[in-house]
Here is the input.
Amino acid sequence: MPSLLSLAVIAIVLQFSEPQRIYRFTACMHTTHMLRLDCRFENRTDNPLRYEFTLTKDREEIVASTIQPNFFNQRYHERTTVNVSRNLVCLYLNKYSQIDKGTYGCRLQMDNDYTDKQLATVKVMKDYLERCGGVSLIQSVPSLLFLLLLPLLQAANVVSL
Here is the structure.
């Protein structure tokens, strides 16, 4: 019986000690010449977060980093902005062009976490990137007209939902 209790306690502790993990890393065009990389992760602690974005073409090159304390990259320093929130680290790369295409990586590290650095990659090719943001029904005139007329159509018993 004591062994069952021990196993239950271990199972509970392991469940709550599950490490941080990146669950989605995506790229999209924020504006015509601005690339946005979203590194979404499960945040289970309030420990400080450190990040690193890399670009790999022929070799890996650091774009932005707080993991390496004295990091500075002349090529990207003036062009990048990083926003950090509870479950998202977002990199904006301004003046994005064909020379910036390649495989981008996102590394996350939480101080005093049970895991080492988490890593995710995404291949970025300028001609195949979608615009950021979702598609809305209200973006098109016919859809907007239908939404405005829907109460009238329901009142006339033409449409029922």
About this structure: The beta strands are 21-31, 34-42, 49-56, 60-65, 80-84, 88-94, 102-110, 118-124. Residues 4-18 have pLDDT under 50 and may be disordered. Residues 84 and 90 are 6 Å apart (CA to CA). The first strand starts at residue 21 and ends at 31.
